Amino acid sequence: MDGLTINEAARTTGWSPRMLRYVERTGLVSPGRSASRYRLYGPAQLQRLRTLKELLAGFDIALSDVAFAARMTRDEELRAAVTAWLEAKPVRPEHVDAEDWLRFEQDKHEKLLAA
Amino acid sequence: MDGLTINEAARTTGWSPRMLRYVERTGLVSPGRSASRYRLYGPAQLQRLRTLKELLAGFDIALSDVAFAARMTRDEELRAAVTAWLEAKPVRPEHVDAEDWLRFEQDKHEKLLAA
DNA sequence: TAAACCTTGACACTCTCGTGCTAAGGTTTG
DNA sequence: CAAACCTTAGCACGAGAGTGTCAAGGTTTA
Predict the structure, then answer these.
(1) Which chain A residues contact residue B69 at CB under 8 A?
(2) Where would I find the H helices in B1-97?
(3) In this complex, do A55 and B82 lie within 8 Å of one another by their Cβ atoms?
(4) Labelling B23: which of A37, A105, B106, B113 has CA 20 to 30 A away?
C-alpha cells in the first residue's frame, strides 16, 4: 500500500475528500489506484495538491483556469490560435492600415445592402 | 463618426449587441466611444470580434478562458507560477526521488500524530 | 420634432463550477 | 465479524458565465 488513501491525503493537503475527487476529474492531479480501486496519493501528488492550493489562493484563479492552461500546454494548435489572437491585440482604432479600411468600407456596404 | 455603432457591428460580426457589451466587460475587445459615449467599432475591432468568435467555436473554449490567457500574458508573475506548476506535472508515482519519499514519510507521521 | 438608435441598469433564466452530504455496496482491519 | 474506510452515483445549492429583454433617459437623423 504505497500511498495515502483519500481521507489521509485530504487531511495532509487541506483539500476535502470530495474536492480531491473533483480535482482528479479536472485531470490536474490524478492519484494511482490500489488493486481494489482505492485512490493512493504518493508524495508527488500530495505536493502538487498543496502547491495547487497555493496557486489558486495566491492569484485568486479557478481550477478551470489552470485546467485551461494545462490544455493549452498539451494542445499545440490551441495554444498557437490563442496566442495569435492575443498578440494581435495592441491594435488601436487610431492606427489602421489601408487594407483594414478597405474591409471596413466593405462592411459598411454590406450593412447598407442588408438593411 | 469613424466606426460602426453597436447594432451595426453586431450585424457584421454575428455577435448580439448584448454580447458585444459583455465582451467589452471581459476586456477582450473594447470599442472606442463617440463624444456622446456611443460605442464605435473600427475595422480592427470588427476583425477581432470575428476571429474571437471562430476561436471560441473552433476549440470549444469560453470567453473566460481567453480572458484568463490574456491575464497570463499581462501578468508575468502569474504566468510563471502557472507554468511552473504545470511543468512539474509529468511526475509519476513510480519515479520518485529520495527527498520526495522523505516528505512522504513525514506526511504519514503527521497524519498518525494528528489522528 | 418624431422615429430610430444608443446608454446604463436591472430582472431573469440556463449552465457549469465548486462543494457538501447521503445512499448502496465493496474492502481493510482490529 | 463489525467498525471504519473506499467507490460511484446523485441530490442540492450558491456563485459566476452567458444571454435575452425591458425600462428610463440621452442622441441622431429623416
Answers:
(1) 68-69, 72, 82-83, 86
(2) 6-13, 17-26, 43-59, 63-74, 76-87
(3) yes
(4) A105
Distance of CA B91 to CAs A41, B31, B98, Å? 12, 45, 14
Q: C-alpha distances in angstroms, B106 versus A2, A14, A86?
A: 14, 16, 45
Which range has the top average pLDDT, A40-44, B95-99, B107-111?
A40-44
CA dist., res. A57 & res. B12, Å (int): 41
Cell for B93?
508515482
Residues from chain B that touch A52, judged by Cβ atoms under 8 A, are 85
In the predicted structure, residue A57 carries a pLDDT above the cut 50: yes
Number of helices (H), then strands (E), in chain A: 6, 2
How much is the pTM? Answer: 0.81
Domains of chain A: residue spans and CATH: 6-114 (1.10.1660.10)
> Residue B92: pLDDT band by 50, 70, 90 thresholds?
very low
**For strand C, which nucleotides have at least one atom less than 7 Å from a protein CB?**
5-8, 17-21, 26-29
